[in-house]
Amino acid sequence: MPVNDTYHPYGHNRDARRRSRDGTGVNRTALVIHTIADIAAGFLGLWILLYLLDANQGNVFVGFVHGMADWLAGWSQDIFTMEVEGLRVFLNYGLPAVIYLLLGHGIAARVRRL
After folding, report:
1. Among the residues of the chain, which ranges form H helices?
2. CB neighbour list of residue 2: distance below 8 Å, 6 or more residues apart
3. Most buried in the list 51, 56, 98, 109, measured by CB within 10 Å?
4. Is 30 in contact with 111 (CB distance < 8 Å)?
């Protein structure tokens, strides 16, 4: 222990309790928004891939991904009513994926500028 250093067992870093003004909280919030949008789009994209590759619908993982994709794309179901089932799934689940990515990344960019 250096001679000039005083021992402060409870007040070691008094500035640590003050609010940080370097933007780390804003960056963390933007990262969370960005990540949630990416995960949502990932589930939708994964369901499109599993459907187009004719994955086993009875599989627990495939059922979970399908359930998440249905929940995430519930607001956009049957916007496109095509005869070709693969194209219909691609468009009805791809549109919300793109919208989630655009909105999530746009909101995250806006939050970072605050």
Report:
1. 24-52, 60-72, 85-112
2. none
3. 51
4. yes
Residues in CB range of 48: below 8 A, 6 or more apart: 89, 90, 93, 94, 97
89 neighbors 52 (Cβ within 8 angstroms): yes
Residue pLDDT, tens place only, 23-55:
678 889 999 999 999 999 999 999 999 999 999
- For residue 73, the SS3 value is coil
Interatomic CA distance for residues 73 and 13, integer angstroms: 48
Q: Name residue 10's amino acid.
A: Y
Q: Which of 29, 35, 37 is CA-nearest to residue 103?
A: 37
CA distances in angstroms from 6 to 2, 3, 10, 13, 66, listed in the order given: 8, 8, 12, 13, 61
Render pLDDT for 62-113 as a digit per residue (tens, 0 to 9). Answer: 999 999 999 999 998 888 888 898 899 999 999 999 999 999 999 999 998 8
